[in-house]
């Protein structure tokens, strides 16, 4: 079991799987509501899952071609860049008067 996680699971795959599970649960709760805005929000969430599915497909293709270790390394660099951009934007917003 440990080899499976070591050889097949990547950062984006786990984040995508979690976001799909949470998104589907929230969308089901909203879709069963009585108000129209809740149903509309559920539709937006379902349509927002399409790019997440594309990320999973691209991730699996990259793992198949290059291996988990190289893909995780690149995905970690991408994740660090996004976190850095988020921090820089947060600092910029705090410095505005």
TrEMBL record:
It comes from the Bacteria. Keywords: Membrane, Transmembrane, Transmembrane helix. The keyword Transmembrane applies. The chain crosses the membrane at residues 12-35, 41-62, 74-91. This is Transmembrane protein.
């Amino acid at each position: 079991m440990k080899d499976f996680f070591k050889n097949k699971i990547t950062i984006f795959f786990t984040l995508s799987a979690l976001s799909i599970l949470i998104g589907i649960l929230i969308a089901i709760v909203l879709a069963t509501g009585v108000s129209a805005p809740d149903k509309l929000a559920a539709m937006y969430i379902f349509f927002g899952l399409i790019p997440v599915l594309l990320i999973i497909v691209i991730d699996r293709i990259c793992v198949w071609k290059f291996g988990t270790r190289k893909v995780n390394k690149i995905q970690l660099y991408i994740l660090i860049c996004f976190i850095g951009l988020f921090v820089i934007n947060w600092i910029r917003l705090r410095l505005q008067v």
